[in-house]
Write a structure and sequence with these properties.
It is an enzyme of class 4 (lyase). This is Delta-aminolevulinic acid dehydratase. The protein has 328 residues and is α/β, with parallel strands linked by helices. The protein has a domain of 220 residues: Aldolase class I (TIM Barrel, Alpha-Beta Barrel), CATH 3.20.20.70. It is built from 11 helices and 10 strands. Helix 2 runs parallel beside helix 3, helix 4 packs across helix 5 and helix 7 packs across helix 8. The longest helix is centred in the middle third of the chain and has 18 residues. It binds ligand PBG. Ligand PBG binds next to helix 6. The site of ligand PBG has 11 residues, from helix 6.
Length: 328
């Protein structure tokens, strides 16, 4: 260390012991930051494994209740419910049926955990439509934005009546947050929060999720989900959702869009969530299954990196496991 005149700067001093590293850690990761997405399948007699997401299942109503209770015990930040209905149709009628699988599962989860765990629900039609799109189709086959909004409004009212604490509109229709806020308030559900999937990109990494919800989509979602090349547009979408009344905004996927996440975090003053999606989960699981990476270390590094990029809340299929790892 040849002298340059001044003192030798030694950043390694603060890395010398685990305790020193803990003292100066810039980013924290705790169970309360994590939301567990869960799938519930109508008519299932036993949990059904999802081939492309090893370790994740489509729950029965009963095992979903157990997963919710466990999430509460672990101190997670919430659970996000997705449903796999037995029947689908062009308008996704099951989504707005109070007896539909998603809505009864919301009520089940709320009955199980009460106020101990925020219960969130995906607010989108894609699991319920036979064509697999996130909205209803116009005569020319395009996704009809404003006709879809009417269904989202009804879906929000039904989910709130079932007891959801938070609704998560994920369909990327223009104006969806404003319409949902209005519908909730009009029905007296002023306390129900909106977690808006604001910057949601058309991504190849959703593949395993589409197996998880038995999606019937054949084309793609590029007329409503965002183009991977656009960062500014992601920030614009988040600002629009805040202006429409979103309580939290989300960037999705997480890992390929950490730059968007950071910019959104800097641009808004509401909490920001990021969704560590199915393909991100599957990549790590596949590599670990081959013995190519250290699975547990990769999980914690992944979640930490999403927090470091600016996420207050991280949706991840590893939520329960990460909580256990953090508690060791
Ligand atoms: C749409 C929705 C999607 C996901 C959550 N909600 C995907 C899609 O656009 O097909 C993806 C989540 C994941 O990949 O883990 N309702």
């Amino acid at each position: 260390m040849a002298g340059t005149g001044g003192p030798v700067i030694r950043p390694r001093r603060l890395r010398r012991t685990p305790a020193l590293r803990e003292l100066v850690a810039e980013t924290s990761l705790a169970p309360g930051h994590l939301v567990l997405p869960v799938f519930v399948r109508e008519g299932a007699g036993a949990p059904v494994p999802i081939r492309s997401m090893p370790g994740v299942v489509q729950h029965t109503r009963d095992t979903l209740r157990k997963a919710a209770a466990e999430a509460a015990e672990l101190g997670l930040g919430g659970i996000m419910l997705f449903a796999v209905p037995e029947h689908k149709d062009a308008r996704g009628s099951g989504a707005c049926d109070p007896e539909g699988i998603l809505n009864v599962a919301i009520a089940d989860a709320v009955a199980e955990v009460g106020a101990a765990l925020p219960v969130m629900a995906d607010l989108c039609l894609d699991e319920f439509t036979d064509h697999g799109h996130c909205g209803v189709l116009a005569d020319d086959g395009t996704v009809d934005n404003d006709a879809t909004l009417e269904l989202y409004a009804e879906m929000a009212r039904v989910q709130a009546a079932a007891g959801a604490d938070v609704v998560g509109p994920s369909g990327m229709m223009d104006g969806q947050v404003a319409v949902i806020r209005d519908a909730l308030d009009g029905a007296g559900h002023t306390e129900v929060a909106i977690l808006a999937y604001s910057a949601k990109y058309a991504s190849a990494f959703y593949g395993p999720f589409r197996e998880a919800v038995a999606s019937s989509l054949t084309g793609d979602r590029r007329t409503y989900q965002q183009d991977a090349r656009n960062r500014r547009e992601g920030v614009r979408e988040a600002l629009l959702d805040v202006a429409e009344g979103a309580d939290l905004v989300m960037v999705k996927p997480a890992l390929p869009y950490l730059d968007v996440l950071r910019e959104v975090r800097d641009a808004v003053d509401v909490p920001v969530a990021a969704y560590n999606i199915s393909g991100e989960y599957a990549m790590v699981e596949a590599a670990a299954a081959n013995g190519w990476i250290d699975r547990e270390a990769a999980i914690l590094e992944t979640l930490t990196s999403i927090r470091r990029a600016g996420a207050d809340v991280v949706l991840t299929y590893w939520a329960a496991e990460a909580a256990r790892l953090l508690g060791r």
